[in-house]
Each structure stands twice: as C-alpha cells, then as structure tokens.
User: Fold this.
Amino acid sequence: MAIIVQKFGGTSVADAQKIRRAAQRAINAVKKGFQVVIVASARGQQTDELIADALEVNPNPPKREMDQLLSTGEQQSVSLFAMALQAMGYDAISFTGGQIRMLTDSVHTKARIKSVDTTRIKKHLDEGKIVLVAGFQGIDENDDITTLGRGGSDTTAVALAAVLKAQECEIYTDVDGVYTTDPRIFKKAVKLKQISYDEMLEMASLGAGVMHSRSIEFGKKFNVKIHVRSSLEEKEGTMIIHEVPEMEGVVVSGATIQKDMAKLTLIGVDNKPGNAARIFAHLAKAKVVVNDIIQTEVSDKKANLSFTVGTNDLAPAKEAITEIKDEVGCDKILVHDDIAEISVVGVGMRTHYGVADKMFNALAKAKINIDSITTSEIRISCIVKQEQAEKALEAVCLAFELDKAAEKRTKAKK
Amino acid sequence: MAIIVQKFGGTSVADAQKIRRAAQRAINAVKKGFQVVIVASARGQQTDELIADALEVNPNPPKREMDQLLSTGEQQSVSLFAMALQAMGYDAISFTGGQIRMLTDSVHTKARIKSVDTTRIKKHLDEGKIVLVAGFQGIDENDDITTLGRGGSDTTAVALAAVLKAQECEIYTDVDGVYTTDPRIFKKAVKLKQISYDEMLEMASLGAGVMHSRSIEFGKKFNVKIHVRSSLEEKEGTMIIHEVPEMEGVVVSGATIQKDMAKLTLIGVDNKPGNAARIFAHLAKAKVVVNDIIQTEVSDKKANLSFTVGTNDLAPAKEAITEIKDEVGCDKILVHDDIAEISVVGVGMRTHYGVADKMFNALAKAKINIDSITTSEIRISCIVKQEQAEKALEAVCLAFELDKAAEKRTKAKK
Assistant:
C-alpha cells in the first residue's frame, strides 16, 4: 500500500476547527487508498509564547531545557489531532519524536537527524491507523529531547517520507504553492506547477519563505517528491522534484526580492593573501550572517571589499569590521543601509545565454541603477536602491514573463 | 549526602515570579547540604485548559492521547524551573517521566507506578545538579506516556522519595499544613505538627483536600516522611508519619465536613443473600461512587438499605436503583439531598472510650439531630441536615478541643 506523508504547519492546526479541517485532508487520503502519516507543528503562536515564558525566567535559557520546553507544543498538536480523527471515526495514534526513535545528534535547538526507526509507525499503519508524529523534535543517544531548528517540522516530514519510501510528502501551508515571485508585490505572479530542488533552494535562501532550506536538501538527497499546497483549498499546489529536461526550456523560474539589507564596503584593504579570510572569520565570530561578497582590485596593493547583510546584523557587522579595520589596512568604511536585492533563479540559465543581459536591460529601461551584481550557476542578483526595489522586481518579472505559466512563455534560445 | 524531595503544585509554579520563589526553596535546601530532587505539577490552570482543548475536538477523548496531551503541562513546568535555577546560578536538569523510566502499568489516566530507574537521577545529583522530574506521568512498557490520575504529582514525589531513600518528602502547597479542621468554617482550627498516615488517609477520603489518598498510602508503605508546608512562608508545616505512642494520648486529631451529599434509602428490600451485592454492582456499573452504607432489618423478610453519594452522583444513582428496584423487591425509594456528613478522626479512638458519646452529646447540646451514624476503627461520622452542618462541625470541634494544639488538650482517659 502506498504511503503519503502530510505536514500541517502551526496556522493549519491553530484551533479545533482548523484541526478538524486538516483531519479531513488525512481522511480524504485514506479514502483514496493511502496509508497516511501526519506531521504537525505547534498550534498557532504557541512556540513564541513558550519562548517568551522561558525568557521571563532566564534571559539566556540553556538549550537542552529549551528543547525540553518547546517540544511540548508539537506533542499537544498531534495528540489533539489524533483525538479529532477518532471523533471523526478514524483510528489514529500519536507519537513524540522520542517514541519513534527519531535519533539526532546532541546539538540542542538545531539538531540533525541521524536515523529513524520505522517499526512502530509501520505496525500501526498496517493495523489501519493514521499515524501522527510530532514535528520539529527528536532525541539524542541519552534520551534527551532535541529540536531541529527553524522549519524543523518540514524536515521531520521529508525525513519520514524518505525512510518510509512515501509516494509523496505534502506540505500544507497558508499559501497554495510556490509562485514565480511574491504575489503581495507583483500582483500578476503565477503559481508554479513544478520547481526543481536546486531552484527552490536558491529561492528559499533568497527569502521565499515557503519552506526551509534543510528540508529541501533532504528531499533532494533522498528523492522525496515534495508537494507544497494549501490547507484551505483542494487544488493542486507546486511539486518540488528533481530537474527534468523540460525545465531547461524555462530560463527563469522565479524572482525574489530581499529588502531590509545593508551593504558595507571596506575601502583600500591591503591586497594580500589572508586578509579576506581574516575579515570574514571576524564577522563569523560576531555571528553576522553575510549574504553576498564582492571584491574589486583598485591597484596592485589595494582592493575594495563589499558585502551585504540583513539590517538586523548591521550593528554587529559594523562593530566587527571597525575592530579589524586597521589590521587589514583599510582606509575607510562605507555603509549603505537603504538597499535591496532582486534575484532571478532558473536551472535553464546553465544552458542558455542572454539572461543577465535581459535582466540588466529591463532594469535600465525602468531607469533603475544597479549598485552591484552577483551570480551563481542558476541565479543572478542585483543590488538596487531600497526605494526602487518593487519597481525593479516588476520590471524583471515582466521581462521574464513571470506573469505567465511556464508552458506559455516565449521559448528561450539555446 | 542526604536527599530531599520537594514537590510544588500548580499554583506554586503558576508564573515566572512563583517559579523563582519555588526555586529559592530548592536553593535553600542545597545550601543546607541536601541533594535536591524537585517534582512539579503543570502551571496554574493549564491542565484544565488542555482538557477543554481536548473536549473541543472530541467529546470523549481516547485516554492514551489524553495522557500524551496532559503530560506536556508538567514537562513545561520542570524545564522552566530548571531554566530559572540556572539563571539563579545553580546547575539543574529536568526530566520527563519517560526519561527516568518511571515505569507504570498501561491503565491510561490512572496508571500505577511499577518501578523507577534512579541511575540518571543519582548521576546528576552526584554531579552537583538539582534534578527536576515532571510529576503526574510515567511510561508503560511500549514507551506510551501514562498519567497517574488526580494528585499524581504527589504520588510521583513520594515514590521518588521512597526509591531514593530521601530524608523527607516536602509537599509545598498554598496552605501551610494540615489543620484540625477546615479553617474557612471553624476559624479557631489549629495546624497539626504531626499526623499519622492512617488519620491522614481517613481525612483525605473525607474531603480534606491537602493530599490525595494514593500518595499517602505510598508514603505509609515505603516509610516516607511527608512534610506538608506552605510555598509562601518559611515556617514548618505538618509531618505525616507512622503512628508514634504519643499520638495515642490525643483521641481526636481532626474533624471533617462533607457538604453536597445525598442519601438514598431503599425501603423494604427482600432480605436475602446477594441482594446488597446486586444493588452495589449495579451502582458501580453506573460509575457511582458510594460513600457510607447502612442496612437495617425491619422484619425477617425485609430490610431498609441506605447509602450516601456526592450530589453530583445523585442523578445516575437514582436512575440505577430505579432500574434494579423491582428485582430486589424494594417497595419505595427515599431521597434526601440536603444532608452533610461530620466526621472525627483519630488513632487514639482505638484505645479510648467515650468518643462517640462525647460527639453525640456535643451535637445534642447544639440541638442538632443525627440522621445516621457510621464508624471505622479510627473514625466516627454523623449525617446531619445540610443547613446545620457548620454549626455541627463547630460543636464537635469545641468538644474535642480542636482549637488547641494537641499537647495542650485535656488528657484523654484510657
């Protein structure tokens, strides 16, 4: 019998009515002949409330106890979900991460899964039950509870789909799939029928918040078909799958916008081996997350080094580079805190030319100045002024026809 | 090093400030040289809130899932308690029932403890940590979470004190000890320095709500000194201990009042073997908790049978005996729902005479009619009219000098 894993986020199980609606989804899958495993997150804002409770007794709560505390949220969700299913006439049983031996390392608050014992899950599935598993949590070798960090319930779901060889892992959210870009900004954005793991990874790291990177990596590694869909409507969402040949015809699958960014530039850094490493090691020590890095040589002896950070990291970043400024021979520090990044992502870029050209032209026509440019194999990003960011996104979306379904776009030239 | 177990109820850990106050109690014990194990209940009204959440998704929630749900409340309390201790500079670690292998049978919502593995607790105590254990919960042989029923956290604490051979088990509550009677009704009630397990058991079953019977039974069986004391004040509370010779000098240790009771009388039941058993089996099937039973023969062939129940059980009790009425040959059913029971309890009754006499005289002087009387080895109970109940309690308390400390009362005659 084919297995399906369904994951419901916190908003999808926030109250009794929503739990019943989610339960109906599980029942529909049972009726279609699937064995069903449900993964649920903590209800509504509960995790945030528990974090607030913790901070009230300890401004710097020990991580082991934090995991012991936060894991209760998911445990409550799945037990209530199982009760709802039973009230609706379907046998169901809930498990904590510990009860199904979801073994992780001991890095509390961001543990990594090492193995899962499927014995209990399979036994109960074969008895005709719907099996519920608390998301986000595991246990280490000492039976201490661990949690998997942000997006942890997605990771639980994809991991279970992998070990159970599920036909599909459905991620139910409050959006109905992955869009070509943020529809709150570009109203004509369209939903993608499918997207490759690599594209989704780039989009996730560029702030498209549907799923967390780690679960997508997991899906890619273990060949799990991930279906992102709405918990409110029945219609199909977006499938995240391995790259298939037809994807190459589409040069750009999506575009992203990251606001609240800042760029720091170190002018006149001594151009000698080890200086860049020194600077970024120092930033890492200050726990600053650096996005893009651009270095340009200005002479044999001097270079300018720029990097971007989220504005919430601006203050510690400034402090860190001020500390190391003299050591690397930097003359001056420039700070721009009014920038944004526009990116386009697509596996088609690997085999097609003219993509960067098209993007720059679109921005030029819209009279938007490009501050700097970075690229990866399947991504091009431009830094622009914050105030022009939305206009820039729109121009780029129209240029790449992101208001049309993939099969209706002008065929790209190879 | 001597071990002390401290148990804090829900009101004692209801918010951050109260958790810190409770934590200070643990720290004080550490400073006195004890190794400290803390057992905590769920915060404030949390258990009731979770029960309400469950009933919203399922009016008849499956018990296994109920345990899975409710056990999270205690888990949250102990992790927050551990965080508070660490913020106050003391190393602490929290455990669920499962993590210390608090093994129970599989009777969900009222499981019984079978064994506890003290290895982990002792290891961490010996490393200088304060150990916290979630009350009320255990696991069965399948790793399914169980709960111990009403007063379960007391049972957890006393059980841990037993297996750890603790010097004392402190039960912190919002009252400062066990009183001769309910001070809200008899203002001059005094706190008892000590009381025997047997007396405390009688008082608990008569509605003195300080501790639940099962934990007292456990303490008696495993010789655990139980100290009931206030979480708000430093002063000594009441020690629950084995009977010592000096207790015999005190005829009556305490008096109780149970309001909200009803008496049902079956008139003219056929006086033949098996009829009483038939009636009470039928009541048990209807889940009616019967308090006292009084049977009187009215002829060779007929008897009258009375029993008392809490008023919340009156409707199902009436229904049950109406069903069985004809089968046992009963002519008529009488119901009194305006009664109360006044009881006196004391191990001294075993060796002293004149106790019943004194009680009946006190009630007679106060012009209170006694409806019926039942006794056990260390208890005498009288059913009176509800409206006279408080006056009756006061008369009895004054007769037995329950407004005076035990050592100051008139010496009883053997």
